[in-house]
## 1
Amino acid sequence: EKPEFELKMQPYDGFNYPVEMHNVADQLRNIRDMTLRDDDIFITSYPKSGTHWINEVVYMLLRGHASYCRKHCWLDADGFDTTDNAPSPRIIITHVPIKWLPWRLSQGRVKVIYMTRNPKDVVVSHYNFGVNLAATAFDGEFNYSYIDKFLNGDVPYDSWFRSVLGWEQFPDTHPKVPFMMMNYENMKSNLRQEVEKVAIFLGKAFNEDLLDKIVESCSFSKTKQDKQENPDPRFKTFARDGSQILYRKGEVGDWKNWFTVTDSENFDKVYKEKMAESKLTFRFSV
Ligand code: A3P
């Protein structure tokens, strides 16, 4: 028998939004109509794909310095006061579906980075985040029900497949937009090379020394330690027990500690069907 549990979400316009996103309809319209600055950088992703990680890399490259303090604009949750007042260049992060992105994006002045991660690690990270998030606060089991819900898109931020398949088409649907897809497993296996790719995409001057320092600062252990010393206040308020919940394990293949053999086989079957038309490939271990 599969244990059942309820996940809090806000369905709107055929998509499951998280409960932390207030006034979804207004918020989405505000995002769609927002004013852009030519030097804005958008980071988009399916949640738990390493959004914060790539944000830190981008921030350090823009600044030309390997240290971080919170400067991004989190569109889905922060709303527009912080975004409007943020100094340039803004790093704007969102998980909303492509159709709700600012219509001005298609004018092609603003750069967009989409971050990806293999979905087995995403579902594990998603589950652990959800379990610890005060707003979601569910007590469900991971095996069976959470994986099923994830595969069906019945989780906050809807379907992973819908996200990656949509973004795979983005260069065709938005031909003017400077666009780059980044990937968690690639960053894990060669962070330096991936940081350099981002620097080139951003058109930022860099040297070997800066790359070395960014690679060091953006390692999982260094980042986790920094965040423990200098916690992001939002996550404290979001977490059920007031702890930092974002920097959990930071590995490729942790899913193997969570999936049963049957879970993995079922997942692979659905993955194969849903990704049949896709050219994207993901590494489930490195
Ligand atoms: P885990 O839960 O598997 O540890 P997002 O920022 O999109 O919410 O993604 C969060 C995931 O990225 C978490 O995964 C987190 O640990 C991981 N992460 C954050 N910073 C990282 C880093 N510097 N290196 C590797 N993984 C990182």
Note: Residues 45, 47-53, 121, 125, 128, 218, 220, 223, 246-250, 254 surround adenosine-3'-5'-diphosphate (CB under 6 Å).
## 2
Amino acid sequence: AKAVVLKEDTSLPAATKIKIRDSVKNRGKRVRVSGWVHRLRVQGKNMIFVVLRDGTGFLQCVLTDKLCQSYDALTLTLESTITICGVINELPEGKSAPDNHELTVDYWECVGKAPGGDEAISNKVNENSDPSVKYDLRHLVLREEKASGILKVRSQVMKGFRDHFDNRGFVEVTPPAMVQTSVEGGSTLFELNYYNEKAYLTQSSQLYLETCLPSLGDVYCLAESFRAEKSHTRRHLSEYTHCEAEMAFISFDDLLDQLEEMVCDVIDRVLAHKPSADIVYKLNPDFKKPERPFMRMNYTDAIQYLKDNDIKKEDGTFYEFGEDIPEAPERAMTDKINRPIFLCRFPAEIKAFYMKRCPENPLLTESVDVLMPGVGEIVGGSMRISDLDELVAAYKREGLDPSPYYWFTDQRKYGTCEHGGFGLGVERFIAWLLNLHTVRDTCLYPRFTGRAFP
Ligand code: 4AD
């Protein structure tokens, strides 16, 4: 049999070019839609069902009779690009398709044929592929519904943070990624050659945000941070998106209140966006908004909690005051308590140089980690040292050369104030919201040990 050559019927009304997201409001009219063949089902010789994907949605299209008999129809493959014309009609009861409607095609053409056979996308990567293959072929995996859905929610989460801060009068700033000072200690710095000088990729924009308070007031940024992490865990990346904020003339309690308000407000904003809410509840059906107020627990009480609940170190001994609580016990405790926790007032010796001491106990700092069930720490924050002499002493104690920090020290010299802020890992927030096993799946192209491609 000879393949049919298709021609558009010029006597039909002109088709309006639309994106799939606008398909409901364009029902009943003749439309033109372009996209990728997401699903393909051939039913006998005279019917082909295509689910078309254009990034804005999915649209079932039905090709009948001679539309199924062209060369392109007979050789159509998944992920080919096509342009389709026809009319979208609501489906009768008992049939189901995305948005409960279907485009009845009157003309279509192939724009770019994808390979079939061994080279077919389903043979290159599928659900059963090894994780390393999935990361090698991330550019193809992104076409899957789950991977793209996560990125769509991510977009709304980022918008949620921006809207949250903009609504409260915070100014967004764009701090540099190439720096010559560390914030969180030397061990996780990525070093680079900067015109033959030593420089680093930033670990945190906090110190720069602090310098903005006198000129811009409360500030925030959504910027990439970089960590040469030695730990290969499901929540550590080498590059991550850091949402950081800094506020002047606040108390530690104000800081905690602001954090709680932010987490809850951003969740509300994401869920108010219907397409995102649908994805959240699809990926995480049991998701419940956290109850307020969040539990507030001191580090000292957490050490006691670990003892009371028989959560031990690998060597069988208990964690003692002054020790860092690593990922495993932190998660064990958070999962057991099963609600967000503000873990407060860590000992100064295990925290960063810039943290303010507690007035009631100078061994402790006015610091907070926000812990979420399933993920653990998603935020680190604190009040900052406000006294010049105390800051100078802190550099000394930590063995930091104060000279490259002159611009930071000047903040304490030229009109100091009580201030504080925090940094939230956007990928960890999303992993918690969507109940994902790893933060890697929340990134467009994740960067972790051994992987800086594609
Ligand atoms: O607790 P961290 O190290 O705190 C700071 O960097 C402060 N200077 C922030 C501030 O006060 N402005 O990091 C803050 C958060 C962590 O709670 C975690 O969510 C995230 O950043 N984070 C990482 N996320 C993914 N991969 C990594 N390697 C991360 N390291 C930290």
Note: The pocket of 4AD is lined by residues 183-184, 203-204, 206, 227, 229, 236-237, 240, 242, 244, 377-381, 421-425, 427-428, 439 (CB under 6 Å).
